[in-house]
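We emphasize that the prediction below concerns an isolated chain of 437 residues; any contacts that depend on oligomerization or on bound cofactors are therefore not represented. The input was used exactly as deposited, without trimming of termini.
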Amino acid sequence: MVQVPRKPGARLVTSARLATSARMATLRPARPAAAPAESEAPGGPSVRINLGRVFKAEGGNYFLLLGTTLFLVIFGLVMVLSSSSVDSFLADMGFFGGLLRQGMFALMGIPLMLVVSRLPLAFWRRVAWPSLLITSFLQFLVVATGLGVGTGGNTNWLNIGGIQFQPSEGIKVALIIWLGMILSQKQNQLDDWKHVFIPVFGVGGGAVLLVMIGGDLGTAMIMAGILFGALFFAGVKMRLLAVPLLIGVGAAIVLAVVSPNRMTRIMSFLNESCTQLSGEISSSCWQPLHGTWALANGGILGVGLGNSKAKWSWLPAADNDYIFAIIGEELGLIGCIVVLSMFILLAFAFLRIMRSATTVQAKVSTAAVMVWIIGQAFVNIAVVLGVFPVLGVPLPLISAGGTALLTTLVAIGIVLSFARGDRSSEPTPDRIEVDRA
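Result of the prediction step, given as a token string:
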């Protein structure tokens, strides 16, 4: 038996015992670095386990965005239950039919959002092109084949095997990933219009065009806002954006003029009386007028949750495009202010994540998501308040709609992955160090 020279205050340790302890330390399961453990056998070596940042607590921006999102989703489920209960009962689905359907998508979307938030930045670079091509192909099937389903004058749904969904919502997610990737590659060439217009408006604009062909002008406007928002926050000069912006506005005007359905909405918006010669409310004015009356009926405190009168078949799309009117009627001005405050808080979270972003891709993609969600919320609320004509866009995270909820949560999950930071280039943290006492 060989003895190790003894230091003052130390015990005698055999070489065999040292070898055995080191072997056991190697086989021992690693524990988080947040609680480093030291295995101290009497007189044996101490084992320090360092797992790096694998289990590192997320930052404040991460929890601010996550908490605000979860609040809006839960609040939306409550309002979907209230606003859809009558229509669900009339459709033989029971009072809870709308809630159960929306709740199913929420139960799928929230875990999916958390899974997406764990993916590294390198993953989004790899899937940028495939995701845009696949979603654009699905939208092509909507407008070019018999699989497309129309509603409200728009052909924006795809029916495959009895399952209906909106590929345009998937294009939004694909665009935010693709724009972040392509503009990060062009970050040193943003002053050259060829390196900006050809990829962004050639490829991204083509995806928007497919949605416009389907007649969904509201969704196309949101997607165009995503393109311009990404370019603006990437650092493209306004003088370069002026011409395509004017062209886009002109195209929107042309599409509105050539569509009888849209022209009817616009004329009803411009017609203050909104009545026919007989004094009856015209069909095109029915929805905006009843939305305004619902808001007026709510006053400051509202009539109480579940006590809306407009949802009794008076207000079309009460659980979707006009759910903000039901919020105003049942929860009053205070409820509306709470919703507006939560979207402002959501925008604040996006801005903080953009400010702390270390890569152009993370900054641009976060900006695109912010323009999408906050811009769409602004448009929806403006329509309900009568500032804009009816455009048919839902209130993000609150309105009923499975595809919209899933894609919005996935987009927020992507931003959450940026809030966690890019760990793709970090060294493998699973390291075990054995120190001798």
